[in-house]
């Protein structure tokens, strides 16, 4: 196990109706003039915004509204939020919605006190030091941004929309309210998409070259088992509160840093996904769903026992100690069956991409790296490896379907 530092200051309030207590939380954190930053998912919940406003009003707080979108925030959105906080002299931000809304609030909170361009944080020129206090109310079973120190934004580079991420303790919300009831109205496709994001994040921690990390192995496996068991329940009954509650908590645990304690984390899946999303303007979760089995198949021989352990402990596949590669392959097959059951894409055609220029994808991906550099840490991926993974994702065919 590696050395590590860990601290999370985010106070979590979980359960039914907890958003009605938000006024006292903001007041406890010293807020007086509050920016309500919310996306469309907050407005479709019956009376949610009204209840939040009443709670703030009972606490004697002023509030100002700034609606936004539920997609990955852009620089322009952040500039508007920073200007709003400065002009109105606000001292607290309350983000209401999905992870994208919370990420936007993180950038706004850090940029308000910075005299330069907040983009300096994402371009590597500066580190954020001070930020406005931030609270979050989660409305979906999403990726867990409410307890994560990571913020993801988009920007246009040579006419292509690209993602940029930054990790900083200053991005951590002071508190987060998680009420699974707020996610009951979420479309099933959005719930499945958010689940894939959770799974991808845990897999990036689970497949590691760091030895002797049994405790966090167990944590990762428990979260993945929960996902595999819970998502089909939600698809069968979208109003299953307990299933939604377990999935929402899984998202928080996946992103609060605990799965990565003392172990090397591999970010190759996200890098591969971002190239597809940027080039073809696709949903990140759809690209991850397609890439996860392809990446696992490519990495199988690197550590057959770890892949076989995944199959055994997450999907209950009998361990073939004489031929562990059989167990490993069966685990990937079970993963694909799970994705099929949940109507998740498994190849580019499922995403609506009938033609994909893999050579261009790889060329663009490698152009962002120094010469001779690779991506990933569990298995270091060069251009040839990336091409193989993309090709696997492109050419996969569902066994139960007929293809012309």
TrEMBL record:
Q: Which residues form a coiled coil?
A: none
GO MF terms, alphabetically ordered: alcohol dehydrogenase (NADP+) activity; butanol dehydrogenase (NAD+) activity; metal ion binding; methylglyoxal reductase (NADPH) (acetol producing) activity
Q: Where is the Fe-containing alcohol dehydrogenase-like C-terminal domain?
A: 191-367
A Gene Ontology cellular component where this protein is annotated is: cytosol
Keyword Ligase on this protein?
A: no
Official protein name in the record: Iron-containing alcohol dehydrogenase
- Provide the transmembrane region boundaries: none
Q: Which UniProt keywords apply?
A: Oxidoreductase
Which stretch is the leader sequence?
Answer: none
Q: Write down the species.
A: Candidatus Anaerobiospirillum pullicola
Protein's UniProt keywords contain Oxidoreductase: yes
Q: Which PANTHER family match?
A: ALCOHOL DEHYDROGENASE YQHD (PTHR43633)
**Alcohol dehydrogenase iron-type/glycerol dehydrogenase GldA domain: which residues?**
12-180
Q: Name one Pfam family in it.
A: ADH_Fe_C
């Amino acid at each position: 196990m590696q050395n590590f530092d860990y601290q999370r200051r985010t106070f979590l309030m979980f359960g039914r109706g907890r958003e009605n207590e938000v006024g006292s939380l903001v007041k406890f954190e010293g807020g007086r003039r509050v920016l309500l930053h919310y996306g469309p998912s907050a407005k479709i919940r019956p009376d949610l915004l009204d209840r939040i406003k009443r709670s703030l009003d009972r606490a004697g707080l002023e509030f100002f509204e700034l609606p936004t979108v539920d997609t990955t925030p852009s620089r322009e959105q952040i500039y508007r939020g920073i200007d709003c906080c400065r002009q109105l002299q606000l001292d607290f931000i309350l983000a209401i919605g999905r992870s994208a809304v919370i990420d936007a609030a993180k950038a706004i909170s850090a940029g308000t006190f910075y005299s330069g361009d907040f983009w300096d944080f994402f371009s590597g020129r500066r580190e954020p030091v001070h930020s406005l206090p931030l609270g979050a109310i989660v409305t979906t079973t999403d990726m867990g941004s409410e307890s994560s120190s990571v913020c993801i934004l988009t920007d246009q580079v040579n006419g292509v929309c690209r993602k940029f991420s930054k990790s900083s303790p200053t991005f951590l919300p002071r508190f987060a309210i998680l009420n699974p009831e707020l996610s009951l109205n979420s479309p099933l496709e959005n719930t499945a998409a958010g689940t894939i994001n959770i799974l991808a994040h845990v897999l990036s921690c689970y497949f590691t070259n760091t030895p002797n990390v049994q405790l966090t192995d167990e944590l990762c496996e428990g979260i993945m088992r929960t996902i595999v068991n819970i998502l089909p329940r939600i698809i069968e009954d979208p109003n299953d509160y307990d299933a939604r509650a377990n999935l929402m908590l899984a998202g928080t645990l996946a992103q609060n840093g605990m799965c990565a304690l003392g172990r090397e984390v591999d970010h190759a899946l996200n890098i591969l996904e971002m190239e597809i999303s940027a080039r073809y303007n696709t949903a990140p979760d759809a690209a991850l769903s397609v890439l996860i089995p392809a990446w696992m198949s490519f990495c199988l021989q690197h550590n057959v026992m770890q892949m076989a352990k995944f199959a055994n402990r997450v999907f209950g596949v009998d361990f073939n100690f004489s031929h562990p590669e059989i167990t490993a392959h069966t685990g990937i097959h079970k993963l694909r069956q799970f994705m099929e059951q949940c109507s998740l894409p498994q190849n580019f055609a499922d995403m609506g991409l009938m033609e994909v220029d893999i050579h261009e994808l790889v060329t663009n991906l490698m152009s962002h790296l120094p010469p001779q550099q690779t991506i990933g840490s569990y298995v270091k991926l060069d251009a040839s490896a990336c091409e193989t993974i993309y090709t696997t994702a492109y050419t996969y065919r569902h066994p139960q379907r007929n293809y012309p």
